[in-house]
Amino acid sequence: MLNRQGRATQPGEAASAVVHPTFTGNRALQQEEALIFEFGRLDATGVDVDEPVAFTSRLGGLERRDGIGLPGLSEPEAMRHYVRLSQKNYGIDTGVFPLGSCTMKHNPRLNERMARLPGFGDVHPLQPVSTVQGALELMDTLAAWLLELTGMPAVALSPKAGAHGELCGMMAIKAAIAHKGEAGTRRTVLVPDSAHGTNPATAALIGFTVKPVPVRADGTVDPESVRALAGPDTAAIMLTNPNTCGLFEPDVVEIAEIVHAAGAYFYCDGANFNAIVGKARPGDLGVDAMHINLHKTFSTPHGGGGPGSGPVVLSDRLAAFAPVPFVVRTADGFRLVESEADAAGQGAQPFGRLTAFHGQMGMFVRALSYMLSHGADGMKQASEDAVLNANYVRACLADLLSQPFGDRPCMHEALFDDSWLKDTGVSTLDFAKAMIDEGYHPMTVYFPLVVHGAMLIEPTESESKASLDLFIAALRDLAMAAKRGDAERFTGAPYHAPRKRLDETRAARQPILRWTPPEPVRDAAE
């Protein structure tokens, strides 16, 4: 018989079996790569280092007493090792990266060039303020753009990621509640079932009790459910909008009014802000605090290889409680308000300092570069294109994949469930693994939790119609194969990846974190 590549196979032989095995395990340009512990030497290094002169340690007994335990490699060996590993990794520069609720879009190279400019790429957080006026001006300009896009009066730039921003916003809310003398009574945070998973975790982390809010059959939050739960013990609601079902909350203004009438605050998870930039301003919707993932909305996915950035915009009700440090403009230039005492002189009441320094300068530069190169109209178009692309994917798959909330338009991501896979012998996980064989990173699976066997696809605005058409065609082919009973194509996938399917549950619960040499193999003659 023939496999899908037209190569002859024997009965029982896996479709990816190697007909012509090689001595090295390499398959032409597909290089097998061992761990550095397997070929490096623990007793040697590729660099000659002089023995240090006698010195007195200042580490207070915390210095390392044994060898570092890393094998020494020559420069060519080290270079080849990491290049070969990089060729096994899937990234946004490889192809479509359709993770839902985790925007993975093209990283404009202009932004990278700007982030490497002298004065940005080599700036140090402990430099005298007089030597970093340009960097502070960039932070001030970025803040102004964020305030304009969100319709909010204040922003804290220091949070380093989305969940860090959530923490910042909720700590500002907690500080405002304490300032009003209600810390002992307002202890409950309402979190809809359609929220991001970090929302309840953040609320619980800082001492609040989480109360879930059910979603309607259409995947959105019913204001009457919020009204029934909101009361004098309510501190805040944490609402994701657009939510994790890829839907804009149509009653968001009424929900905000209900929460405010109860004396509580409205925290909006802004991870999906990239769907509404230039279209809707959170401040106009009644939001009191919202984090913005600069690394998702305004350029590099997941921090461009480094830390992310999650600034938090704050309403008038919370602005005074923003953490230090923050930038202020004076007649003599820009300066940083670093201490709570200094902030008090500015009329502020910060809840404290959230992080050691001032945020992630590399992401500030990338985000502002993205904003300036797109302009207001370009950012609005990016949001529109993100929504258009998601609806294109949704419409092109609607006849094969089931949609939990009906055949209705979505925002920036299209959500499917696994009901279409019933009686096929194929699971959501199997389908995702088969996508790897087709050369695609799988979409987000099994999330959001309100949908059974969820498959959440976010194509982003940076994908062309040609790339989406090929992606859609691949998914349609997989879907038809599952429906006609070709379960073998799925249950053992991926067949063509450098490593086959892992027991991911066991790997997460029983990780092997230390390499141990294998037992030596004795020759038969011994």
Provide structural commentary.
By secondary structure, the protein is α/β, with parallel strands linked by helices. Among the domains are: 152-369, Type I PLP-dependent aspartate aminotransferase-like (Major domain) (Aspartate Aminotransferase, domain 2, 3-Layer(aba) Sandwich), CATH 3.40.640; 378-509, Aspartate Aminotransferase, domain 1, CATH 3.90.1150. The chain has helices at residues 36-39, 75-86, 109-115, 133-150, 162-179, 198-205, 223-229, 252-261, 294-297, 340-345, 361-397, 428-437, 465-483, 488-491, 504-509; strands at residues 154-156, 188-192, 209-213, 234-240, 265-269, 289-291, 312-314, 326-330, 333-337, 414-416, 444-445, 455-457. A 7-stranded mixed beta sheet has the order 1-7-6-5-4-2-3, with helices on both faces. Strands 10-12-11 form a 3-stranded antiparallel beta sheet. Pfam families: Aminotran_5, GcvP2_C.
User: Could you list the spans in which at least 5 consecutive residues all have pLDDT below 50?
Assistant: 1-16
| Tally of helical runs | 15
Q: List SSEs in N-to-C order.
A: HHHHEHEHEHEHEEHEEEHHEHEEHHH
Class by SSE composition: alpha/beta
CATH superfamily of the domain at 152-369: Type I PLP-dependent aspartate aminotransferase-like (Major domain)
Please describe the biggest sheet, giving its number of strands, its sense, and whether it closes into a barrel: 7 strands, mixed
pLDDT averaged residue by residue: 91
Could you name the CATH topology of the domain at 152-369?
Aspartate Aminotransferase, domain 2
Q: Name the strands of the widest sheet in spatial order.
A: 1-7-6-5-4-2-3
Specify Rg, calculated over alpha carbons. 27 Å
Secondary-structure arrangement, i.e. CATH architecture of the domain at 152-369: 3-Layer(aba) Sandwich
Strand residue percentage: 5-15%
**End-to-end distance:** 44 Å
User: Percent of residues in helical segments?
Assistant: 25-40%
For the record, what CATH class of the domain at 152-369 applies?
Answer: Alpha Beta
